[in-house]
From TrEMBL, chain A:
Main location: membrane
Family indicated by similarity: Belongs to the ATPase epsilon chain family.
Species of origin: Roseomonas populi
Compartments where found: Cell membrane; Endomembrane system
Protein name from the UniProt record: ATP synthase epsilon chain
UniProtKB/TrEMBL annotation, chain B:
Family designation: Belongs to the ATPase gamma chain family.
Species assigned in the record: Roseomonas populi
Superkingdom, natural source: Bacteria
Protein name: ATP synthase gamma chain
UniProt keyword annotations, A-Z: ATP synthesis, Cell membrane, CF(1), Hydrogen ion transport, Ion transport, Membrane, Transport
CDD domains assigned: F1-ATPase_gamma
């Protein structure tokens, strides 16, 4: 089956770099499956799970806390803010993040809408992390 | 002249100093390797980020409501200098170099009639600049208790700068840090953060690429999310370079100190032996002249 080059980088290191058949990414406006030959796009990502398919099976799934993806017909580059393999997500840490994000959102209630939006995005990412941790 | 006992004491004390400096040199070498690996690992993200920004920047540049972080406030009056130094000393001229560079910049800017604000990262730079520019320092960030600098810290600094930009507290933001040139050479240098200096690439190629891409959400929202990330990554890179440079500088300084201690020990040992021989000779003369007198 046709493949494209997937690169997943976090600020701290290069996590993945190899040809894959399909990847599902949590794009800003909903999940998005990327196959070889996809039209060129730059998308923002929200907190969610990236699933990678190779040889007809799902081989990797990682949780990311938001980021960006650049897609061209032959490659996809994902710039993740923070990436953790699903297997090593901890429920306790996720729950703590949700609590922190809720507190931050509450504290931002009186601030400018952009700041509130950012806090809300973080809370959403933290909730997604909790869901992913529970499912794993 | 110092007595034999004094000399022995001094030799021993220099020997234990040498032990400490040579141990510090080894530790610095190990940490340098780790810091370099970390800096290496951060490179791919920065490169990809640059590529993405180049294609986005050309798509948005010139539009009247381009984000402030990209085009600045349009003025050039208030400068924010972010000075990155180390948390610890015993590293040769490392901290002083960055401090001196910052001082020259502050003087030059003030001579032009600009207002200068300083944000220091690292304890040593704060201590250096506080003496002369205490009233320009608006914040001091220190990571003295953090073992390994991560992206989190860079993000924290970036958030702070962003908040200040949004509050209109400065017009131009410049980062001053020690660039890691090699293990023995760290160069104090500056980098403009805001307005963002977009990666210069051949405009024809990126214009073509920019026309091709589809954006979700729109270009401007994307850019306004991407720019703070870019700011954080630039700071992260500077922090890592400064860290690697610090260990390089410390290693060199400790190597010199170890060598100097060795020389000192040789000199003291020579002195010790001469004194000992002089004492023996003196005693012999006393004995012989005593025997002759009988």
């Amino acid at each position: 089956m046709a493949t494209f080059d997937l690169e997943l980088v976090s600020p701290e290191r290069l996590l993945l770099s190899r040809p894959v058949e399909m990847a599902v990414i949590p794009a800003y406006e909903g999940e998005m499956g990327v196959l070889p030959g996809h039209s060129p796009m730059i998308v923002a990502l929200r907190g969610g799970v990236i699933r990678v398919t190779e040889g007809g099976r799902e081989t990797e799934s990682l949780f990311i806390m938001g980021g960006f993806a650049e897609i061209t017909p032959t490659r996809m580059t994902v710039l993740a803010d923070e990436a953790t393999p699903l297997a090593s997500l901890s429920r306790a840490a996720a729950a703590q993040r949700v609590t922190e994000a809720e507190a931050a959102l509450a504290a931002a209630a009186g601030d400018a809408p952009e700041i509130r939006d950012r806090a809300a995005d973080r809370l959403q990412a933290a909730r997604a992390m909790q869901d992913a941790a529970q499912a794993a | 002249m110092a007595s034999l006992k004094d000399l022995r004491g001094r030799i021993n004390s220099v020997k234990s100093t040498r032990k400490i400096t040579s141990a510090m040199k080894m530790v610095a070498a190990a940490k340098l390797r780790r810091a370099q690996a970390q800096a290496e690992a951060a490179r791919p993200y920065a490169q990809r980020m640059e590529r993405m920004l180049a294609s986005l920047g050309t798509a948005v540049a010139g539009s009247p409501d381009a984000p402030r972080m990209l085009v600045g406030t349009g003025r050039d009056q208030t400068h924010l200098l972010v000075v990155v130094t180390a948390e610890r000393g015993l590293s040769g001229p490392f901290n002083t170099n960055a401090g001196r560079f910052a001082r020259a910049r502050i003087r030059a800017l003030e001579a032009e009639g600009k207002t200068v604000k300083v944000l220091t990262v690292g304890r040593k730079g704060a201590a250096y600049l506080r003496r002369e520019f205490a009233n320009r320092i608006i914040g001091e960030i220190s990571y003295v208790n953090i073992k390994r600098i991560g992206f989190e810290q860079a993000d924290e600094i970036a958030t702070r700068i962003t908040a200040m930009l949004e509050a209109g507290e400065f017009d131009v933001c410049t980062l001053i840090y020690n660039r890691f040139q090699s293990v023995i050479a760290q160069v104090a240098s500056e980098q403009q953060l805001i307005p963002a200096a977009l990666p210069a690439n051949d405009t024809a190629a990126s214009a073509e690429a920019g026309a091709l891409y589809e954006y979700e959400p729109g270009e401007e929202e994307l850019l306004s999310a991407l720019l703070p990330k870019n700011l954080a990554i630039q700071i992260y890179r500077a922090l890592l370079e400064s860290q690697a440079g610090f260990y390089g500088s410390q290693m060199t300084a400790m190597d010199n100190a170890t060598r100097n201690a060795g020389e000192m020990i040789n000199k003291l040992t020579l002195n010790y032996n001469r004194t000992r021989q002089a004492n023996i000779t003196k005693e012999l003369i006393e004995i012989i002249s005593g025997a002759e007198a009988v």
